[in-house]
Specification:
- The chain is of the alpha/beta class and about 180 residues long.
- The protein has one domain: Alpha/Beta hydrolase fold, catalytic domain (Rossmann fold), CATH 3.40.50.1820.
- It contains six helices and six strands.
- It has a four-stranded parallel sheet, sandwiched between helices. It has a two-stranded antiparallel sheet with strand order 1-2.
- Strand 4, helix 4 and strand 5 form a beta-alpha-beta unit.
- The chain is globular and about 40 Å long.
Length: about 180
């Protein structure tokens, strides 16, 4: 759940306002624990529309209470597709986009990301990820490069995770603006 996920980002606490929205769908995992998901295959298009609207409303609410000089976007695993779909449907300008161990939605086009032409896309993938092989990650990088020329791809030693490599890069980028 989002509360567990945000723990990965504790090293960034105090350097940025961290927001970890939680997926709106629920299901039981193999251990019978209820977990959040951004979508299921049931009524897929409606779920995509719902979570894009949810993220837009959440950003609007947060922005009403506090102004931010720069906004970074991070998607991990299924959140990569979620982040990219929101990015394609928002007027929020992201300084940096971090995509970790996930897939680029195949329906996106150059027009969907042109608003983000000044944002740099950082794509991270593990060399031992059981859910996203290196070959599949390479395909995702190629797909992302069809959408923008502002792509930096980084393979790291590890599996399906937000790597320390990505956290260090985010921390360095935050230091640049603070």
């Amino acid at each position: 759940m989002a509360g567990d996920f945000i723990e990965v980002f504790r090293p960034l606490e105090g350097k940025a306002e961290l927001v970890a929205p939680e997926g709106l769908s629920r299901y039981y995992n193999k251990t019978k624990k209820a977990v959040a998901s951004w979508m299921t295959s049931h009524e897929r298009e409606s779920e995509i529309e719902d979570y894009v609207n949810y993220l837009e409303l959440l950003h609007g609410e947060i922005s009403r209470n506090q102004q931010f000089e720069k906004v970074f976007l991070l998607g991990y695993s299924q959140g990569v597709s979620t982040a990219m779909r929101w990015l394609a449907n928002t007027k929020v300008s992201f300084e940096r986009i971090y995509l970790c161990s996930g897939s680029i939605p195949p329906e996106l086009s150059l027009n969907d990301v042109k608003f983000q032409s000044n944002g740099i896309f950082h794509y991270f993938y593990g060399d031992h990820d059981p859910l996203l092989t290196v070959d599949k990650a390479s395909e995702q990088v190629a797909l992302l490069r069809e959408l923008t020329d502002q792509v930096e791809a980084k393979e790291f030693k590890g599996g399906h995770e937000v790597s320390s490599t990505s956290l260090k890069l985010i921390e360095a980028h935050l230091s640049e603006i603070n």
